[in-house]
Structures are given as C-alpha cells and as structure tokens.
Specification:
The protein is of the alpha/beta class. The protein is built from 13 helices and 11 strands. It has a 6-stranded mixed β-sheet with strand order 1-3-2-4-11-5, sandwiched between helices. It has a 5-stranded mixed β-sheet with strand order 8-7-9-6-10. Keywords: Signal.
Length: 351
C-alpha cells in the first residue's frame, strides 16, 4: 500500500512544526552554554481515508493549528489511504497508530474477517452519508427507494451497504434497489435533472453545498431510519495493549476532544475562529463560501454532540448498528460486538 501526505499545499509539514523551531532555538542556546533543548514530540500517524481538506476532519485540523497535539507532546502526521481497507491493513501491521472509519467497516472487518481491531472513540455519532434527489421526483422516505436507480461513488463499499440498510429498514430487499456507479464529480447532479438516476449518494459536505446552490435539491438523511453510520477511531488490539502506544492514543484523543469543544463553542460566533484557523494552514474548498462552511460545521456540531459525550461510544447504539448489519446479511448473528470496543481509554489533558 502506498500512502501520501495530505498536508496543505501551502507547505507540507508535520504537526510538530513549532517543536522543531523551539529545538532550533534551544540548540543555539546550548551552544552558548545555556540549557539543553527538549524533545521533538512522540510520533503518531493518523490515516485519513478521505482527503484531509474536508470539514469532516475539522477537529484534526483545529488540533493541529491550535497546537493541541504539540501541547501533549505529540508529533502527528496525517497520511491518506485509498479507502478503509488499506487503512485497516496498515494499522493492523503497525504502520500507523490509528485511523477513523465507519462503524460498518469496523464491524465487518472485526466480525466477518476476524481482524483484531478495537474502536476506542466516536467523534461523529451519526452517519454523514446523504442521498440526493430533486423536487421533481423526491426521495424522502426509506420505502421510496424501492424500484429506484441510485448512483453510488464506487462499486460496493460503505455507501452501498448504507443504502441496503436504509432499504432494509423499510422491508425493501437490496435487489429491489438498482445501483449505478457515478463517481463524485460535480456534474453528477445533472444525471438527476436528466432522469438518468433517481438519487445519488454524497458526503455531508457535498449535500450542504448542493442544498445552498441548487434550490431543487432534496436531501435524504439516513439517520432518520438507521443507527449505523457513526465514525470511529480505530487501532489494533496489539497496539492498544502496548502501554506506550496506548498513552499516545489517549493524548491524541484528548487533543481532538479539546478541538471539538472549541468548534462547538465557536458556533455562537458563526465559526469565525474555526474557519480562520483552518484556512491559515489548509486549503478546504468548503471555506470558499462562508455560508456553506457555516452550515456544514453546524451539521458536524450536531453530529459531535448527539452522544452523551464528545468521544464516548454508546453500547446501545453500537449493538443496534450490529443488529442492522446482521439484518441485511453482512454479518453473522450471535457475535458480541462489545468485544470490538475499548471504552476504557481516558483522554489525557495537556502537559
């Protein structure tokens, strides 16, 4: 597997850039007989399965730009992978400490393929997939997908499974919902207006953009009918059992939790500081339209705060998601999904 850095094109660098500058100053002072310099920070690699320049990763970008990782002695690198499968493989092989994937992928990997994965945090408590249709032929309820042709970003995968779950919630068999791969290009909306597809699947960011720029857009939110779809921080059982790695994961989670709270609090100010900080280091397309960015961030805040705590995993929702996935034949019944969780990890405060 090949991964590439997803740092902003304004300058690839690690999150510990300030530490490097401090070290340089300390080296000069040491040469003059001053105190010894400090350490550069302990390395942590986070694998993002989507482009980093998405508001989906706003907590990571805020933790970076506000120095929250550095304050906890971490030198974090973001690396992109081509989907969740290589991210899972890399984490299991010890090539990265963690990734963020959906509960669906986590459960299928752990329950169907016996991958020794552990989910230890849930930064996004609800699904971020949306289905787009138009006012001319709206799809607003799960049962309306029966007999429809739905565009998907790729063959199979989480989007297609989510569609199966939505249809299944209304008793619609998967084979009664046709699919066509349409990709993710902006021109896909024209397939709707021309009648070539009845609906298509997009990210939360894209759904907000379409809702603001195409008045005929109708957005269906799967969260109204299914529990599955949350985003999980995932590591390997072996890495979680290692005290040093576990400590780094606790500090990573603490930095992200503080960043999430910052974004939640900044909603009262129209997310002005959140957008300024992200834009100072990252080129995020959604920030090109402040109204769209505010609406997207507000939707993410809803997803952050819909659980009991910002990173807490609800055992009840987790079990409900497993039951739904079993219901469409993607997992065998009788497994214990709680075995794929580690809810004992405690985020560590800044040092």
């Amino acid at each position: 597997m090949t991964t590439t850095s997803t740092r902003s094109v304004r300058g690839a660098r690690r999150v510990g850039r300030t530490c490097a500058a401090v070290l340089a100053v300390c080296a000069v002072l040491a040469a003059c007989g001053g105190n010894d310099g400090g350490d550069a920070g302990e390395p942590v690699t986070f694998l993002n399965v989507l482009p980093m320049e998405s508001l989906s990763f706003a907590p990571e970008m805020i933790a970076d730009t506000r120095g929250l990782f550095e304050a906890r002695g971490l030198d974090v690198t973001f690396e992109a992978t081509q989907g969740s499968a290589p991210a899972i493989q890399t984490v299991l092989a010890g090539g990265a400490q963690l990734t963020r994937i959906g509960d669906i992928e986590t459960m299928i990997a752990a329950g169907e393929r016996n991958a020794p994965l552990l989910a230890f945090g849930e930064p996004i408590h609800t699904g971020t997939i949306r289905m787009i249709s138009t006012e001319a032929s709206p799809v607003t309820r799960a049962e309306q997908f029966r007999g429809r042709l739905v565009g998907t970003p790729s063959e199979g995968g989480t989007s297609s499974i989510t569609l199966d779950l939505v249809a299944g919630s209304a008793g619609v068999p998967p084979e009664e919902v046709s699919r066509q791969v349409v990709g993710l290009s902006p021109g896909v909306f024209d397939l709707l207006t021309s009648g070539r597809v009845d609906s298509y699947i997009v990210s939360l960011d894209t759904s907000v953009l379409l809702d603001h720029t195409r008045p005929e857009t109708v957005v269906y939110d799967p969260n109204q009918d299914i529990d599955a779809g949350a985003q999980m921080y995932v590591t390997s059982a072996a890495q979680m059992a290692d005290p040093q790695t576990r400590d780094r994961l606790e500090r990573y989670a603490s930095a992200v939790e503080e960043a999430m709270q910052f974004i939640v609090d900044d909603e009262a100010n129209g997310f002005a500081e959140t957008m300024r900080l992200i834009d100072s280091e990252y080129e995020v397309p959604a920030l090109g339209d402040p109204d769209v960015a505010k609406a997207a961030l507000a939707a993410y805040v809803d997803a952050y705060t819909s659980g009991d705590t910002l990173l807490g995993i609800s055992p009840q929702r987790w079990q409900a998601a497993y039951d739904e996935i079993v219901g469409i034949g993607q997992l065998p019944p009788g497994l214990d999904p709680a075995a794929w969780l580690d809810t004992t990890l405690t985020p560590a405060p800044a040092r």
